[in-house]
Specification:
2 domains; three-stranded antiparallel sheet
């Protein structure tokens, strides 16, 4: 497997001072932390709610100073303040330091769509204001005044079409990935399956596979057995401390879903 595809190779906890004892340092996976190595271009983080997989992913985003999906720096995002202390304890070992990529939480996506829609509205209002203000001036003066706004609106249309808010949640989610995935990036995705149907989860797997073949690395926290089945992904369980690799067929999520689909009536009768 091409090692160039694994940009972030390991996460260590710095030695020295006594670690804090409050959250998130009281999580079992943090208390019993051992150097966490990444051996595949796609790593899947699994575990029950509260196991720490999202917390660790957020702290990595801050430690790597990666941008969020809204293009702000993760380490300056006030919604990630609860992991800033942990991020300072993380020591990231790189084979190649990358700046491309982004960090995405499913809940952040909807705020991003809303902000993008509002930005379009505000720029269109500004264009109308410029048109009125430059009425009677030369055509060249009008074009020069409009140029920055029309260029930015054109770029948004080229990247997102008529707007992510004009599509279904699943369609807009995939459209964001299509427009923002670039080769050679590091992508930290927290539960990206949230707005996606099973069919669209398969479409996401296809996109990830294409980007992984172009020197991108993905670390994904998920509850989806479909995403967990990504070919040749390394699956790391946060239900175990320290964190360790597990086989797909041994995952409770997978076996529970398989058993339910094989005989849903027995589960529903029990409930």
């Amino acid at each position: 497997m091409d090692e160039a595809m694994i940009h972030l190779r390991e996460i260590q906890l710095r030695e020295g001072e006594t670690r804090p004892e409050d959250f998130p340092f009281n999580l079992p996976v943090i208390r019993r932390w051992e150097p966490l190595a990444f051996s595949a271009p796609v790593t899947i983080l699994v575990g029950e709610n509260g196991s720490g997989k999202s917390t660790v992913l957020e702290a990595v985003a801050c430690a790597a100073e990666i941008i969020t999906v809204g293009s702000g720096a993760a380490h300056r995002d006030p919604s990630l303040a609860h992991v800033h202390a942990l991020a300072k304890w993380f020591k990231l070992i790189w084979s190649k330091r990358v700046r491309k990529g982004f960090f995405l939480r499913a809940e952040d996506f909807f705020g991003f769509v809303k902000r993008q829609s509002q930005t379009r509205i505000e720029m269109q209002r500004e264009l109308d204001r410029v048109k009125e203000e430059y009425r009677g001036r030369s055509k060249q003066a009008q074009e020069l005044a409009r140029m920055p706004l029309t260029r930015e609106l054109g770029d948004m249309h080229k990247r997102y079409g008529d707007g992510l808010d004009t599509q279904s949640h699943g369609e807009s989610f995939l459209a964001l990935f299509q427009s923002r995935f670039v080769p050679g990036g590091l992508y930290l995705l927290d539960e990206p399956e949230a707005p996606l149907s099973p069919l669209r989860q398969l479409a996401l797997i296809s996109m990830i596979k294409q980007m992984a073949a172009e020197d991108s690395q993905f670390i994904i926290a998920t509850h989806s057995p479909i995403l967990m089945a990504y070919p040749e992904a390394e699956i790391l369980s946060f239900d175990l401390a320290p964190i360790r690799p597990v086989a797909y067929d041994s995952l409770e999520h997978v076996n529970l879903m398989r058993d339910f689909l094989n005989d849903p009536d027995s589960f529903l009768r029990y409930l």
